[in-house]
Amino acid sequence: MATVNVTMQGATAVLRLDNGATNAISSELVADLAAALARVRNSAGGLVLAGNSKFFSIGLNLPELITFDRAAMIAFFTRFDQLTFDLYTLPLPTACAMTGHAVAGGGVLALTCDFRFAAAGKKLFGFNEATIGLPVPYLPDLILRQLAGDRAATEMMYHGRFLPVDRAVDIGMIDSVLPLAEVEEQAVATIDALAAQPRTALALIKENRTDFVRSAYELHNRAKLARMLDCWFEDSVQALLRDAAEKF
User: Which residues constitute the domain of residue 142?
Assistant: First the structure.
C-alpha cells in the first residue's frame, strides 16, 4: 500500500503523506514520495504537500533506521537528500499544508516548499536533532538560514527547539496560520493562482532564489553527510536514538 496519495485539484497536484498516524519518514515513504514527484513534475502546474490533522510528519522513522548499518544509512540518506533537493529545486510553485505537527524530518520536507500554511492551535514546527546528538542535515540547514536568517536558525538548531506555529510565523518560517479547515484550501488556492502565470519566468525566479543553496549543497553535501553519520554512529548517540525509537 502506497504511503503517498496523489490527487489533482485544478492545476495543483496534492501529495498527501499517508504512513500511519505520525507519517514517519521510512524508506518506503521516501521511495513513494520520489515516485509521486516524478509522476507530477511535468504534468502539474504546482504542488502541495499535505499530511493529516495530527501530524504532517513526525520525522524519520527511527525504529527502522536504528537497525541500519553505515552502508544502509548512506543509502537511505542519499535518497532522502536527493528527494529534499528535488522538492526544493522543483521548477514549479509549491506549498506545504501543515495541518499537524511538522518536526525534525517532517520540518525538512516542509522547508523544501515555497510557502507553508499551518493550522492554528497546538501545532509545532522545528528541529530537535541537537538534543539527540545530531546536526540538522546540511541542505535543510542551508534552507533554514536562508528563510529565517542566521540568528533565528542558529537559536532553533543549537537548542533543538520546536516552535509553536505563531512563533514560526514571526521569524518567517510559516507564511500564515489559519483555521484547520482552511489550511489545505489556502495552499491549493495559492499554488493554483501561481500556476496560471507564465511557467518559464516563474521557474527562473525560483532558480535564482535557490541557486546559492543549490551550489553549496552540490559542493559540500557528500562530506557533510559523512560527518553527520560519524555523529549518528557514536555510542552515546546510538543510545539516545534507541530511547527515542522506543517512544514511536
Answer: 4-183
